[in-house]
Structure formats: structure tokens, C-alpha cells
Amino acid sequence: MSKSVARLKSMKKVADKVDHSSKLRTNIPAGMAAAGPPLGPMLGQRNINIAAFCKDFNERTANIKPGIPLPTRVKVNADRSYQLTIHQPPATYFLKQAAGVTRGAMLPVKETCGKITLKHIYEIAKIKSQDPPLEWRPLQEICTMLIATARTCGIEVVRDLDAKEYGEFLEERKQVIEEQKKMLQEKREAKMLRTA
Fold first, then answer.
1. First-to-last CA distance in the chain?
2. CA separation (Å) from 88 to 27, 70, 78?
3. Rounded to two decimals, what is the model's pTM?
4. Inter-CA distances, 126 with 4, 47, 94, 115, 131, Å
5. DSSP assignment, residue 115?
6. Where does the Large ribosomal subunit protein uL11 C-terminal domain start and stop, copy by copy (predicted)?
7. How far apart, in whole angstroms, are the C-alpha atoms of residue 119 and residue 172?
């Protein structure tokens, strides 16, 4: 009987050491971490010093253009300290920047919001290969993933791109976006009338 009690006590000591804290996963704009919502409450729930975290994050991202969304992982330790991991900006951000568009397509497969070349895909893949989750993946696999992501954003991947033709395409696209915004506004107004 005493052996089983001793065994249970030793198991309890091991069980106490297991860490069940979850990682905080969020996108924070570079150099713009602030104590206000939504970041402040997320850090407060995990007992992290909000002011110190914001200062640390803003110092680490000082060399990056302000406002770029950065996927951030925060591992909280038992003594209220934390390990901060900052990844490269999301693939969709790079793809939209390369295509010169601010928003993706509303109907991704049916409409095209922009075009990029395979060279753009390769350059983005080289940048994204520095991320911890993609470190050990081959560049070809990352390129395939980026092409799929571009398709879901409504960005077409082409071999060659003529600057003049693409400029005309973007001008036509601006008119389409304006029409879509008007249509969305009309839907919102119609919904407001129904609920009132």
C-alpha cells in the first residue's frame, strides 16, 4: 500500500511540471504595438506586462516599414516572462504588394484582381523560406503553396508581364472595384431598411 502511495506522490510531482499554457498567435502591425484593444486584453489575460511587451516589440520591428502586419507568436513562461517570435509578413501581403492591388477579388476564381510573374513568386518564396514553419521545406514546395494562395486571392500568375498592358488592366480594375463597392453599399442599405 505504501509503495502505491509513494508512486502516486511522485507522479503528482511530475504532473505539476507539465505546462499547459497556449501560445498567443496574432498579427501585429510593425512598430505599432499599443496597449489598447485588441492586443492589450490578449496580453492581460496571460499576465504579461503590456507596456514592456509593446516597447520590446516596437524596438524589434523598428527597422521594418510601420504598419506591415507581422505574424507574432508569444510563449508565456510561468514566471510571467515571454519568448517573442516574429515571422515574415503573410504571403497574401507580399502577393498583393507585388500585384499592386490593395484588396483581393470578391470572387477569386471567377475574377482576376491582379497579375504577377513567376519571378515574383520565386522572390516571395525566398523571403518566406526564412519563417520557422517553412525553414526545412524545399523552395519548389513553397512556390507551389504561393501560387495556390495567389489563386485564392484572385491574382493570376503569368510567365511574362507587359507594364503598359498591366497599367491598363489596373485602370479597368479600379472601375470594377468602384462598382462592387456601390453594390455592397446598396446591399447594406437594403438590409438596414429591412431591419428598421
1. 72
2. 11, 6, 27
3. 0.79
4. 57, 37, 12, 19, 10
5. E
6. 88-157
7. 24
